[in-house]
Design brief:
five-stranded antiparallel sheet; 2 domains; alpha/beta; Aminopeptidase; about 400 residues; five-stranded mixed sheet
C-alpha cells in the first residue's frame, strides 16, 4: 500500500512554489511504477492516484481491507530555512520535541474532516497532552517497521546522497490503526530553497522513488522466508542487476558537502566472510571472549551449517544492537553475507520443529518473529534448507 500524503483541499506544507500534496503524489506514483514493473506478482494499491482528499482513518481502512503487507506513507517536511534532509518515522514514542511537532502537523489534517473527535476517539491534534499519550501506542510490527525504515534511510544516504536525519518514532494517526508494518517518510523540506527545487523536479522525485524502491527490495529479501509457499525468491542475487527505470544522476543540496553515488543501478556490495559464518564480539581479554554473549554466538564447529531458526531481529549496526539481545536465552547471532546481523532463536532441521519454537516466541511477546533459514552465513529459503538437510 502506497499512501501519498494530503490531497484535495488539504495542501499539506507549502514551499515557495510547490505543495506537499503534489510532490508526495508524484513520488508515490513513481515508486509504485518501479515496484509494478519489476514485480508484476505484487499487487500495489494506492490510497490516491489523483489530487483528492482522503481522511486519515480511511487511509488505514483502505490498507486493512486490502490486507496489505506493508504501508508506505510519502510526505514532505516543513521547518526553518536552514532545515534540510530526509527522515523516516515509525509508530512509537516521541523522543524529542521536534518529533512531536512533525506528528502534530501531519495529524492536524483531521481538522479538515467532519466529526473528527468522534472518528478518532476524542483525539485532539491541538493538544500536546493528547499527542504524547497517543504516542505511547506501540505497534506489534515495530521490529519490521524499524528494519524497513532503516533500509530507507540507508538508501537515501548511500544512493540518493541526501542528508540523513535518521529513523524516528512519533504518534501518527495514519499509522495508528493499520494492521501491518508501516512507515511514514518525510522525503525532505519544501521550506529549504535548494531541497524544494530538487524535490519538485522530475529527476529528484525519480531518485527518491528509486531509493525507496531499493529499500523495499532489501526488505522483501529479508521477509521472504515468512511464507512457506515462497519456494524460490523472485529477487535476483546481488550480482545480478535488477531491471529498473533509468536512475538519474543525483545532485545533493548545496549545503551538503558529500560525494554521491553513481547513477547506475549497482547493488550494495555484500559483506563477505569466507572463513567465518558468525559474528565475533570484541573483547579486551581472552577470558571475556569465552563468556557472556560470546558463548551465545554461533561458533560451535559441530553445529549444522544448514538449519532453520526463528528470527526476532536484524541490524546493520551489531556493535550497538548486540547488547539488546544479551538476556535472551539461546540467542544465535548470524553475520550474513548481505551485511545484516540477524538475531535468531534455536537451530532446527525441520520446519515443523522450528514452527513449535516460533509459536512459543510469539506467545512470549515477539509477535513479529518469523522463520528463516541459513546455509552458513547465507540466508536461504525454507524449502531450499529442507532439501539440503534431506541430502
Amino acid at each position: 500500500m502506497i499512501d501519498a500524503g494530503h490531497g484535495g483541499h488539504d495542501a499539506g506544507c507549502l514551499g515557495a512554489s510547490s505543495r506537499e500534496k503534489h510532490v508526495a503524489l508524484d513520488i508515490a506514483l513513481k515508486l509504485g511504477k518501479l515496484i509494478e514493473s519489476n514485480y508484476p506478482d505484487i499487487n500495489v494499491v494506492y490510497t490516491r492516484k489523483t489530487d483528492v482528499f482522503i481522511p486519515l482513518h480511511e487511509r488505514a481502512n483502505i490498507a486493512n481491507k486490502a490486507h496489505a503487507d506493508l504501508l508506505i506513507c510519502i510526505h514532505l517536511n516543513a521547518g526553518g530555512k536552514a532545515a534540510f534532509g530526509s527522515e523516516t518515522y515509525v509508530m512509537g514514542n516521541h523522543k524529542t520535541e521536534s518529533n512531536l511537532d512533525v506528528a502534530k502537523r501531519e495529524n492536524a489534517t483531521i481538522l479538515l474532516e467532519d466529526d473528527y473527535l468522534k472518528k478518532y476517539d476524542g483525539f485532539d491534534p491541538n493538544s500536546p497532552e493528547a499527542n504524547i499519550i497517543f504516542s505511547l501506542y506501540q505497534s506489534q510490527f515495530m521490529s519490521q517497521s524499524l528494519l524497513f525504515a532503516s533500509n530507507i534511510q540507508d538508501e537515501f544516504t548511500e544512493y540518493a546522497g541526501r542528508n540523513n536525519r535518521g529513523v524516528k518514532q512519533a504518534g501518527f494517526l495514519v499509522l495508528y490503526k493499520t494492521a501491518m508494518p508501516a512507515v511514514l517518510i518525510e522525503c525532505g523540506f519544501l521550506t529549504h530553497d535548494a531541497e524544494e527545487k530538487y524535490l519538485a523536479s522530475d529527476k529528484g522525485q525519480q531518485t527518491m522513488a528509486t531509493a525507496i524502491y531499493r529499500a523495499f527490495k532489501e526488505y522483501k529479501v529479508d521477509m521472504e522466508s515468512t511464507s512457506e509457499n515462497n519456494v524460490k525468491s523472485d529477487i535476483p542475487p546481488k550480482s545480478e542487476p535488477v531491471k529498473t527505470e533509468k536512475e538519474p544522476t543525483i545532485t545533493p543540496p548545496v549545503e551538503q558537502a558529500k560525494t554521491t553515488k553513481t547513477d547506475t543501478p549497482e547493488e550494495k556490495s555484500p559483506v563477505t566472510s569466507p572463513t567465518s559464518t558468525t559474528a565475533t564480539l570484541p573483547s579486551s581479554t581472552p577470558e571475556k571472549q569465552n563468556s557472556g554473549l560470546a558463548e551465545k554466538v554461533l561458533n560451535d564447529l559441530n553445529s549444522p551449517s544448514v538449519f532453520i531458526s526463528v528470527q526476532i531481529g536484524a541490524s546493520k549496526n551489531p556493535g550497538t544492537d548486540n547488547s539488546k539481545f544479551e538476556t535472551i536465552e539461546s540467542i544465535n547471532i548470524v553475520q550474513c553475507t548481505d551485511g545484516y546481523t540477524r538475531y535468531c532463536v534455536g537451530k532446527y532441521l525441520s520446519i515443523a520443529e522450528a514452527r513449535k519454537k516460533l509459536n512459543q516466541v510469539k506467545s512470549s511477546g515477539k509477535a513479529d518473529a518469523f522463520l528463516t533459514a541459513f546455509n552458513g552465513n547465507q540466508r536461504i529459503s525454507l524449502q531450499e534448507a529442507e532439501k539440503l538437510i534431506k541430502k
